[in-house]
Amino acid sequence: MTYGIPGATFRAGVDVVDISTPANPIRLGGIATTGSATSVFASPSLIFVADGAAGLQIVDFSEVSIPRLLGRLETAGALYDIEVRGPHVFFADGESPGQIPIQILDTTDMARPRLVARFGDAGYFSPIRVIDNYAYAIDLGGGLQIFDVQDIYQQTAESVTYL
Description:
The protein has 163 residues and is mostly beta strands.
């Protein structure tokens, strides 16, 4: 069985769909969220949802027909895009002018994700991508910032490259 998780639907919720037969997709389960699901990151049994003004939602889909909300975190602005690496969720708090935009959460305790790092210049950032030890964030006002995230707990001004 092949699963598809539609993302960027800008509606409240996430669905899991069997796409084994692309001409005949079958909805297997879903869960409503409190915001507008704009982006998802899926692992084998978890789905991390960027849920607009409602922040981050963490959903357990280990039983596809009975998903359950494991945890959530409200953000200062609207959350439109996320990137997950191990227990860390990287996101750009897209609508918080004057705020530190790039943030990293530790989700070791899924019920209580906690903020562990914030960095970058104030701006409107989305999307953010993490490749190897670097996070790449595009400022929608112009420019790219590259962050060395090898040790997320030791961010300094020298960790950032501006283009």
